[in-house]
Amino acid sequence: MADQEYKPSHSPDPTEPADPDAARPPATPGTGADRTSDAVETVYDASTGAAAEDRVAVASQFQLMWWRFRRHRLAMFGGIVILLFYSVVVFADFLAYASPQASEAERSLMPPQRVYLFDDGSFSPHVFGLDSRRNPQTFQREYFANPDDKIELSFFAEGFEYNLFGFIPTNRHLIGTKDREIGESVFLLGTDVQGRDMWSRLMYATRISLTIGLVAVIVSIALGVVMGGLSGFYGGWVDMVVQRMMELLYSIPTIPLWMGLAAAVPDHWSILRIYFAITVIIALIGWTELARVVRGRLLALREEDFVMAANLAGASQFRVIFVHLVPLVLSHIIAAVSLALPAMIVAETSLSFLGLGLRPPAVSWGVLLQGAQNIQAVALTPWLLLPAIPVIVVILAFSFLGDGLRDAADPYGM
Amino acid sequence: MSANQQITTPPGDTRVIGDTILEVNSLKKFFPIKKGFLRREVGQVRAVDDVTFRVRSGETLSLVGESGCGKTTTSRCILRAMKPSSGEMLFHQKDGRVIDLAKANRSQLRPVRREMQMIFQDPFSSLNPRMTLLDIIGEPLLVNGIGNRREREDRAAELLKLVGLRPEFLSRFPHAFSGGQRQRVGIARALALNPRLIVADEPVSALDVSVQAQILNLLMRLQNEFGLTYLFVAHDLSVVKHISDRVAVMYVGQLVEFAETDALFHHPKHPYTSSLMAAIPAPDPRKRGIRARLKGEVANPAAPPSGCYFHPRCPHAKDICKQESPIFEEVEPGHFVRCHRARELKLTGVPELDNSGAVSASDS
Asked: A339 to chain B nearest CA, in Å?
């Protein structure tokens, strides 16, 4: 009666998969071996598919993630945009052609120059020199292109000295002029109120805006993973202490803290250093969100049977954490980074705009936008608002990228 | 407990039931119930409450009972995935030494772990999705420092063949496999260290019925080949009847009956066992009769009833059952029961005739 459940597997019923093993293997070894090879065939047949499936079967999780990510067009696009932005960070000195601090009252608030690529049908990029005149009615300085004053542009030209990658001294820049001081003649994106070249300033601002938060992000991610990991893996009183600590930190309001810290750091520090110190301090209290996620994941994961299997096999705790658990949380960490980075960038931009973050003479997107803080900028000098465009583009790109990463992070959910 | 007697085994069974491999004496595992901000202990859940049994090498011993009766907790204590509250678990090692698993610390347990492995219920949770089969099956070898990379690969390939999978699968990830195939991988991992005792916690209950049969047959074949001892935790009585030599029935953390499979299924001596037998679905419509349904709910292990834990649901309960807690005694050779009226009651089990017919049919 009880055994009848197993009858299908022993009877030659064509609708049932052939049973690989007899109930008790037959005593004669010959038949036993035959049965075993049969079994291998049967089980294999059930799982083989096309070659494409084979490729999926042996793919590591990162390969699966990459395949899935590649199918997410918007995320790929976002990723490429972000790569471009970070290449500006690396090559800011090369892309800029003038010193970001070189000011000249004579050149204040110049509009962007038009670049001509051809001259009489042949390729010869050039701009025209600008003559200035004060408008007698408005007392505003007005600029006119002088068609007789052709300034030829050349690529990979020599300019001011800088260190490529921080240690290769060079003076090559993307563009230069043939026979003139470029800082006094070319203004691709116009100039600000103090006559500083916006294009060059934007390059340096990109460098600072995109990197100053990085260390803070790394600090907060590392803290989040470690604290969340401890809390989730060990549970008990460790969890209790970490949880209460997180609740305490979570209750501290950020902006007043930011203002207090800005006043509290030593005043002989440079502006960049002050800001950096503040971001790191903010990071020291900003790890709680990721810690919560990591804790939750680990609490769930440590109950999984494969963790117990590893323990029963005699694996050390170190192995269980770093070989079994951390790789499974990695996807969450990637997603968290893709959210934390744009948050840092927006924080820098908005705080600097309000005058709480970076301040001149430091150059950042927020500082540049500070120059467009009035109605005059919007009405008369709209090019001062240009730094808002990279902010929007890079944040959008991060969002697309993060979206794709989150989807790809779980390749088994296809 | 009686001496080791030879069990009548079906034809084709070449096993030798040997000496005791594991003695569990008065095993207890209580979980504290904590309340309030200060986490004061306000009570205990008696998950495993004074369990005593012996496992003989080469046999299949099943631990059955309703959900929450403590059978899984018992198996986890034996594997020392949990520390028992009290009691002894004497494990007889290959070299003849006896170690008390209950008191052993991490470093003392390490060598014993090689001899004791586990097969899990859920084939999806038991394999790390990030690891290839080679990493999964090779892990016990790696962490125990056995062999170099090449040797581990050979051993893992051999183990895959043994469980009916192709050795080429070594580089694949678990996501490429079905539930039954994953369970085979789990079995291969359990065999990697050549263990003597395998604790199987509901190894087939997550699988389709047709796949269940394949896995059970595989387990039995491996037992024959390697002289494995199984401690089988299950709630499906038809599966248990098919594979076990002896069966232990648990109720609210206690063993209520422990006997050889046939004796327990055909002549149960505890009213609870008898009611479990009545609940086995009969695949024959003519045999459909009146079921002796159990009334009431399973007792709460945090506040068990007085006397015999089963008395509120027992159709045969008398006054003594409410007052005195029965002892676990041997009423017939090899047949242990925890019931005041075990000797007087005539209880019905599974009809005998049907069984012998089914077994001979499937083995011919």
From this structure: 24
| DSSP H or E stretch at residue A232 | helix A214-234
Residue B94 or B41, more confident? B94
Element (H, E) at B152: helix B149-162
Residue B188 has pLDDT above 90, yes or no: yes
pLDDT single digits (tens) A394-406: 999 988 888 888 7
Domain ranges (residues) in chain A: 76-85+211-413, 103-195
- Only one residue has tokens 């038991």, namely B126
Using CB atoms, which residue from A19, A61, A316 is nearest to B213?
Answer: A19
Nearest residue in chain A measured CA to CA from B121: A305
Is B122 an 8 Å CB contact of chain A?
yes
| Cα B87–chain centre separation | 19
The correct answer on CATH 3.40.50.300 for the domain covering A76-85+211-413 is no
Buried-state track B155-165, b at ≥16 Cβ within 10 A, e below 16: bbbebbbbbbb
Residues in chain A within 8 Å Cβ distance of B114: 314
B241 and B101 share one domain: yes
Nearest to B350 among A1, A8, A42 (CB): A1
Continuous segment of H or E residues that includes residue B90: strand B86-92
- Is residue B338 less than 8 Å (CB to CB) from chain A? no
- Please state, in angstroms and rounded to a whole number, the distance separating the CA atoms of residues A16 and B118: 29
Judgement on whether residues B106 and B20 belong to the same structural domain of the protein: yes
Write the CATH number for B260. Answer: 3.40.50.300
Determine whether the interchain pair B122/A16 forms a contact, defined as Cβ–Cβ distance below 8 Å.
no
* Same domain for B21 and B150: no
In sequence order, what DSSP letters do the residues of B333-357 get, joined into one string?
TTEEEE-TTTTT-----S-HHHHHH
Expressed as residue numbers, the domain containing B179 is 129-193
ipTM above 0.90, yes or no: no
Number of domains in chain B: 2
Q: How far apart are CA B310 and CA B298, in angstroms?
A: 8
Q: Are B253 and B51 in contact (CB under 8 A)?
A: yes
Q: Do A3 and B282 touch (CB under 8 A)?
A: no
Select the residue from A3, A42, A64 to test the B interface by mutation, using most B Cβ atoms within 10 A.
A3
Average pLDDT value for residue range B325-353 = 83
Q: Does B161 sit within 8 Å of A2, measured CB to CB?
A: no
Residues B275 and B139 in one domain: no
Contact A140, A120 (CB under 8 A): no
B217 touches chain A (CB under 8 A): yes
Instruction: Please tell me whether residues B71 and B211 are part of one structural domain.
Output: yes
